[in-house]
Amino acid sequence: MAKVIFISGGARSGKSRLAERLAAEFGAPRGYLATGGAGDAEMAERIERHRARRGSEWQTVEEPLALAAALREHDGRFRVLLVDCVTLWLTNLLLGSDDGAGALAEVKELAALLPQLTTPVILVSNEVGMGIVPDNQLARRFRDLAGEANELLAAAADEVYVTFSGLPLRLK
Fold first, then answer.
1. Do 74 and 33 touch, CB atoms closer than 8 A?
2. What are the residues whose beta carbons fall under 8 Å from the beta carbon of 18, sequence distance 6 or more?
3. pTM here?
4. How far apart are alpha carbons 129 and 143 in whole angstroms?
5. Could you give the CA distance from residue 125 to residue 16 in angstroms, rounded to a whole number?
6. In the prediction, which pLDDT does 98 show?
7. Which phi and psi (to 5°) does residue 5 adopt?
8. CA–CA gap between residue 152 and residue 68 (Å, rounded)
9. Which position among 50, 51, 74, 143 bears the catalytic label?
10. Where does the sequence pass through the membrane (predicted)?
């Protein structure tokens, strides 16, 4: 059973930088499992900036939907796999689903898979439950799904961190 690290926090809180720092401790080669795509020029620029920051010791795998399958496929190929990010993956799943039940089933499959992997995994996710109640049904469904997913994945993790203003706090 490989180590599983779960990192949550708000937007621009330092989650990805912490994840990359922790991943560096495992050595190279490192796998970066990206769940978001370049839907516009601004996102493409962000992706390129992140790739440049990570450097050549990382291999990027893009998988917006079949996260558990991608982890299974790449298990054993890297010293560590970093998934960035769970909430983009949930967005992709929710927008392809009518009620979120399918997305939650995918999260449960992922949580059940994690203890079976041989490669350490670092999961990055946004904390979306600390703000106001969203004003529309889709946003509320997303917030509820993300909250439940974060609970399930944090429970399955060996270490759990939350980041605030670039500072990590270890919870577990």
1. yes
2. 7, 161, 163, 168
3. 0.94
4. 6
5. 9
6. 62
7. -120, 130
8. 14
9. 50
10. none
What is the set of domains in the chain, with CATH numbers? 4-170 (3.40.50.300)
Coil/strand/helix, residue 41: helix
- Tokens linked to 157: 């993790």
Q: What is the DSSP letter of 56?
A: T
The residue to which tokens 């900036």 are assigned: 49
Residues 65, 93: Cα–Cα separation, whole Å: 6
pLDDT at 47: 77
Tell me if residue 74 is catalytic: no
d(C-alpha 27, C-alpha 161), whole Å: 21
Band (pLDDT 50/70/90 cuts) for residue 93 is very high
**For the residues 77-105, what does the mean pLDDT come to?**
90
- List CB contacts of 60: < 8 A, sequence separation 6 or more: 32, 34, 51
Of 103, 18, 23, 15, which is closest to residue 60 (Cα–Cα)? 23
